[in-house]
């Protein structure tokens, strides 16, 4: 099954935390503690997110890290591309050279369309939506009550 990398997952966790008051414009170690992302790995992710224009980071005593834009203007596609590169979705679903060399592959008929559809859907999912999902899961309804909305996958592909 296709899934985004652990690095992208860590990036989303950290970015979700950064939107909150406790972590906004904080040092990496505070964001790591808040998000549960390993403190040794977070600077590597932040370097990529800063290069991708997702966050702004300033070193030193009055420094810290903050979102470059409001969460509604940051897409999951942008986060994935910053962390994994523009070509994070492979040319060939099977990970081979088939699709590049013109050989008939059983996946070749549908994968290019699906790859673009996945990119479009990830582009539609904002960080704000991920934050809302995280908050709804952090505050589950009291026992005995059911949510009006069933649990959903964080990345709906329609």
What does this structure look like?
With 158 residues, this protein is mainly alpha-helical. It is 45% helix and 5% strand. It has helices at 6-19, 28-35, 42-51, 76-84, 98-101, 111-124, 127-138; strands at residues 55-58, 64-67. A two-stranded antiparallel sheet has the order 1-2. A hairpin with a 5-residue loop joins strand 1 (55-58) and strand 2. Helix 1 packs across helix 2 and helix 1 (6-19) crosses helix 3. It is elongated, with a radius of gyration of 18 Å. 21% of the residues are buried.
Q: Can I get a quick summary?
A:
The chain is mostly helical. It has helices spanning 6-19, 28-35, 42-51, 76-84, 98-101, 111-124, 127-138, and strands spanning 55-58, 64-67. The model is unreliable at 144-158 (pLDDT under 50).
Going by CATH, the architecture of the domain at 6-86 and 126-137 would be Orthogonal Bundle
Main β-sheet, in a few words?
Answer: 2 strands, antiparallel
Mind telling me the C-alpha Rg?
18 Å
In whole angstroms, how far apart are the ends?
A: 16 Å
According to CATH, what is the class of the domain at 6-86 and 126-137? Mainly Alpha
Give the structural class.
mainly alpha
Name the CATH homologous superfamily of the domain at 6-86 and 126-137.
Winged helix-like DNA-binding domain superfamily/Winged helix DNA-binding domain
Question: Helical segment tally?
Answer: 7
Q: Which oligomerization state do the chains in this entry correspond to?
A: single chain
Number of strands: 2
Which stretches are low in confidence, meaning pLDDT under 50 for 5 or more residues running? 144-158
> What gross morphology would you assign?
elongated
Percentage of residues in strands: 5-15%
Order of helices and strands: HHHEEHHHH
CATH topology of the domain at 6-86 and 126-137: Arc Repressor Mutant, subunit A
Helix content: 40-55%
Strand order of the largest sheet: 1-2
Q: What is the overall pLDDT average?
A: 81
């Amino acid at each position: 099954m296709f899934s985004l990398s652990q690095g992208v997952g860590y990036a989303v966790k950290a970015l979700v935390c950064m939107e909150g008051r406790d972590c906004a414009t904080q040092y990496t170690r505070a964001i790591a503690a808040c998000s549960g992302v390993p403190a040794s790995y977070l600077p590597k992710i932040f370097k990529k997110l800063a290069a991708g224009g997702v966050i702004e980071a300033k070193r030193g005593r009055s420094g810290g890290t903050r979102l470059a834009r409001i969460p509604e203007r940051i897409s999951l596609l942008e986060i994935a591309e910053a962390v994994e590169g523009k070509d994070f979705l492979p040319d060939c679903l099977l990970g081979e050279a088939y699709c590049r060399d013109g050989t008939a592959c059983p996946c070749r008929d549908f994968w290019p369309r699906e790859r673009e559809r996945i990119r479009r859907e990830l582009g539609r999912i904002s960080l704000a939506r991920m934050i809302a999902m995280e908050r709804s899961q952090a505050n589950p309804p009291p026992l005995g009550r059911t949510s009006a909305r069933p649990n959903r996958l964080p990345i709906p592909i329609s």
